[in-house]
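Q: Hi! New to this. If I give you a protein sequence and the SMILES for manganese (II) ion, can you show me the bound structure?
A: Yes, paste them in.
Q: Okay, here:
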Amino acid sequence: MPVQKKEHPMKTPVIAMSARSTEHYHTRVFYDNESYHDYVKAGGGIPAVVKADTEEEAEKISRIFDALLVTGGEDVIPETYHAVQEEKTEPIEEDMERSDILLYNAFKKQNKPILGICRGIQIIGAVEGSTLIQHIDHHNQRVEGKAVNDYFHSCSFTEGTTIQKIFGSEAMVNSFHHQVLKEVPLGFTLSAVSEDGYIEAIEKGHILCVQWHPERLLHDPKHKALITYFVSSAAKAE
Ligand SMILES: [Mn+2]
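A: Thanks. Here is the predicted structure of the protein with manganese (II) ion bound:
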């Protein structure tokens, strides 16, 4: 009797999202913005908020989940990139910083896809040996009175990079940051630069990092294509 070929449906990737913390009814809670949840779902994945306290825990998480999304948040702690804190820097809590670093290293070790957004590109850059410019005052559209889901500035993309293949040679992005990578980390490629010359995206193999918030521009096919690409690469990752 001929063996019937079974159709294997495409696996639905589960995406670990780095937790952020706040206080709710006098209790510390771990969360991620709804826009990240919606973004991952729009790309075909299932989002889950994670926090790691030890290397061992991060390693277990990296085995369970298919990919890591390092979300936005407060400033990177300057000690992480061997700098002294300047006046306008507002560092994240120490355990959140530690969790981001542990998760990033663990998923990198597993060679699973990693997407860094906003604080995500900054902490990944810092871990990889880059430094940060601690304050620029013209890349926050909130301060300029622009809506959250609006564009703010253009970027030009580096020919041949994965991110350029998604966005084309030029695209509009939003901007909600006051810090930015000072240099591209060793081994990474500069994928996008803002019209005024700041680093807006870098990449290295499965690791894609953007300074803007694509999850707030889900109405734009290019920004949606980034999460579709990321989630489908998570589905393929071993
Ligand atoms: Mn910007």
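A: The first strand starts at residue 14 and ends at 18. Let me know if you'd like me to explain how to read the tokens.
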